[in-house]
Specification:
59% helix; 0% strand; 259 residues; mainly alpha
């Protein structure tokens, strides 16, 4: 609890001082940020100890708002040109998805339909590909240099994803924390080249994982598009066909009918 409060306060201070800070932090500031972020990551990892697997903790039908859910829905609304309206006024913002296979499914409803286990399987598939990447050693270094191991990466990404996908509060700090994580630990991967390699492995995982409902794959692709565009703005790189393997216009058109 005290450590969490320190982190949240630090995030607030960083956000408030963005317009007053020079573009580059001093070496001491960077090390302090890395230390605080690392301690918070360790505290998140600790909560998984003793569990048979992260995906067993939330079953189908369960849904609850996480730390990042509302923030990520707002990103989706902005990306798709939807006006800033209250969730109660837009039925599609309900965290409980329809079981009708003909109805659209949104990424924030995924937990209510398939639970967490298929998402865990997908992420394990993805990191198996990342850690087996012998073609791009520099990309792999972005993960191995942190020293938390493959399992640590799996659990942290699982926490963030299911937090966004309606499973409940799993990733304290939300979008601010994930931005700090990327800036402190993986800046060399937050480029067009790194994003393209990341998407290459994720698409391979999506194509080979049984997600329990055919609509889930499209919902995850929509989630990836929204979050990747956010990262592109934050780290100033272009996306398009180079990153997605298809045009952003086609990605937008694919989801236009459900907005």
């Amino acid at each position: 609890k005290p450590l969490t409060n320190i982190l949240i306060n630090l995030l607030d201070l960083l956000q408030a001082s963005k317009t007053h800070q020079p573009e580059h932090h001093t070496e001491k500031q960077q090390e302090t940020s890395k230390l605080v972020a690392a301690k918070n990551e360790q505290s998140q990892d600790a909560k998984h100890k003793g569990k048979s697997g992260g995906g067993e903790s939330v079953k189908k039908g369960h849904c609850a708002e996480g730390y990042s859910t509302r923030q990520t829905i707002e990103l989706w609304k902005a990306q798709h040109g939807v006006e800033q309206i209250q969730g109660d006024e837009m039925p599609s913002l309900n965290l409980k998805g329809s079981k009708d296979p003909g109805s659209p499914l949104y990424f924030w409803q995924i937990a209510s339909i398939v639970g967490m286990k298929p998402i865990e399987v997908l992420i394990r598939n993805f990191y198996g590909r990342v850690y087996g990447d012998s073609e791009d050693p520099e990309f792999l270094k972005a993960f191995t240099r942190i020293g938390k191991g493959k399992e640590g990466h799996i659990l942290n990404q699982l926490d963030f994803w299911v937090d966004c996908m309606g499973a409940g509060k799993y990733y304290q700090g939300g979008q601010d924390r994930i931005e700090m994580h990327h800036r402190c630990f993986a800046p060399q991967a937050m480029t067009q080249k790194g994003a393209a390699r990341w998407m290459h492995h994720m698409r391979g995982a999506l194509d080979t994982t049984d997600l329990g409902d055919p609509r889930v794959k499209d919902a995850i692709e929509d989630f990836l598009y929204v979050t990747m565009e956010k990262y592109a703005r934050q780290f100033k790189f272009e996306t398009g066909t180079t990153v997605y393997g298809r045009s952003t216009e086609k990605l937008m058109q694919k989801r236009q009918h459900i907005v």
